[in-house]
């Protein structure tokens, strides 16, 4: 019942001359339309070889090519840095190959001190500074503390040092290269409540608003008093489970900067106090996502 067919049916009733013209015109029109359809479907066929055998919606959006993403550690570093930058910490970067003074001696760990054993250190052969001692691969980001003190010379200091660290340790839960972040705040009248407030802030921002921090007495040479910091267990939420033993998970170290360390950094310990903390990036990342 198409329009062309209706016209073709009328041809017999049209007069001689016009009848011939009408026949030619209708034939041409029909052919033009048929050609256009044929042409169009050959384009469609070309675009999709499945069109004949399968129903195919050519208006569907195309497939997105696979997209890459940043390394998980890079994400974690960005997130941690953003959290601390929001409350005024200044992100710094210091050498990966460091002098003994900044990594140990200046942090109140003299040569042959047994505390050094914990930092199973890589030494660089035949590289010795007359004043700062042996060259080592930075065993912890705390080495940035003395560098930041001597760079700024004067408080206030609010440092966040995120960097690669190296230790001679390889097993299921230790890698010879890993990341740490160290925070350092020095100014007048800084006390433990400032440390605790900062820890709580970080724990809530990074692990979630229901998480809390807890500090336990501990020992580090470069802080006095020293603490170990725990966070509400990520798995059970604090009730106590097989993974946390008592509702808390261990996060890392912290403390009030030792007066000897302040002095070594050129800061007057009778005028200024400070707090510091240092944790592993992989560790907090794995805790956040409950990776065993
Ligand atoms: N540097 C310590 C470590 O690698 C962690 C640490 C403890 C950093 C106490 C600090 C601190 O800044 O105050 O085990």
Labels describing this entry:
292 residues; alpha+beta; 3-stranded antiparallel β-sheet; 26% strand; binds 3,4-dihydroxyphenylalanine
Can you walk me through this structure?
The protein has helices at 3-10, 16-47, 72-85, 100-103, 143-152, 192-207, 259-264, 281-288; strands at 90-92, 97-99, 123-129, 133-137, 157-166, 177-187, 213-220, 223-232, 248-257, 273-280. Strand 7 (213-220) and strand 8 (223-232) form a beta hairpin. Helix content is 34%, strand content 26%. It is built from eight helices and ten strands. The chain has 292 residues and is of the alpha+beta class. Bound molecules: 3,4-dihydroxyphenylalanine (DAH). Residues 140, 142, 182, 220, 223, 252-255, 276-278 line the site of 3,4-dihydroxyphenylalanine.
Mean pLDDT: 92
Compounds present? 3,4-dihydroxyphenylalanine
Major β-sheet annotation: 7 strands, mixed
Secondary-structure element order, N to C = HHHEEHEEHEEHEEEHEH
Determine the structural class based on helices, strands and strand pairing: alpha+beta
Which percent range describes the beta-strand content? 25-35%
Fraction of residues in H or I helices? 25-40%
Low-confidence segments, ≥5 residues, pLDDT <50? none
The N- and C-terminal alpha carbons lie at a distance of: 72 Å
**Whole-angstrom Rg:** 36 Å
> What is the total tally of β strands?
10
Q: Which strand order do you get reading across the main beta sheet?
A: 1-5-6-10-9-8-7
Number of helical regions: 8
User: How would the global form be characterised?
Assistant: elongated
């Amino acid at each position: 019942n198409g329009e062309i067919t209706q016209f073709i049916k009328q041809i017999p009733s049209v007069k001689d001359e016009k009848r011939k013209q009408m026949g030619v015109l209708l034939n041409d029109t029909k052919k033009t339309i048929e050609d256009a359809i044929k042409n169009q479907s050959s384009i469609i066929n070309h675009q999709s070889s499945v069109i004949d055998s399968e129903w195919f919606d050519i208006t569907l959006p195309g497939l997105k090519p696979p997209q890459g993403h940043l390394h998980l550690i890079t994400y974690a570093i960005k997130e941690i840095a953003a959290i601390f930058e929001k409350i005024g910490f200044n992100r710094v970067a210091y050498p990966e190959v460091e002098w003994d003074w900044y990594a140990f001696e200046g942090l109140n760990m003299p040569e042959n001190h047994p505390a050094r054993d914990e930092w199973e250190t890589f030494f660089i052969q035949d590289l010795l500074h007359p004043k700062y001692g042996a060259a080592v691969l930075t065993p912890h980001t705390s080495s940035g503390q003395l560098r930041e003190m001597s760079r700024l010379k004067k408080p206030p200091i609010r440092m966040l040092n995120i960097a690669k660290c190296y230790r001679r340790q390889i097993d299921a839960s230790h890698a010879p290269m890993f990341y740490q972040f160290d925070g350092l705040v020095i100014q007048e009248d800084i006390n433990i409540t400032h440390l605790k407030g900062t820890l709580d802030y970080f724990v809530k921002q990074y692990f979630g608003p229901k998480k809390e921090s807890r500090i336990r007495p501990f020992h580090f040479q470069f802080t006095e008093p020293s603490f170990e910091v725990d966070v509400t267990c990520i798995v059970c939420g604090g009730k106590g489970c097989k993974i946390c033993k008592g509702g808390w998970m261990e996060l890392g170290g912290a403390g009030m900067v030792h007066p000897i360390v302040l002095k070594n950094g050129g800061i007057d310990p009778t005028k200024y106090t400070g707090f510091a903390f240092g944790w592993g990036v992989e560790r907090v990342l794995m805790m956040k996502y409950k990776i065993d």
